[in-house]
Fold:
Amino acid sequence: MKIYVLVFVFQVFFNIFKTMEIKYTYENKLKPLLINSVWINLVGLGSTYFSLERLFASDWLIILVYIGGSVFGKWFAMTHFENYENKFYEIFSKPKKTKKTL
Structure:
């Protein structure tokens, strides 16, 4: 059970860090991007190690935990972090108000 929780948490953090990587790249923030890359690699390595270890032991349930953590992490990152690109799109795509003539 501990391995399932660990893999789930690793996958959640992996997807949050991947979303932050896209954000930092878009904002051209090099230092946070490099630090984030270290965390992505550490979490990804841990997740892969424990998942493969369970798969080699014929534990197929780990696949569902792996995918579930991935989906939850992506959902969490997309709903709880600012999406600046979407905000720019909303600003520039608003229909212009026109005066009505009689």
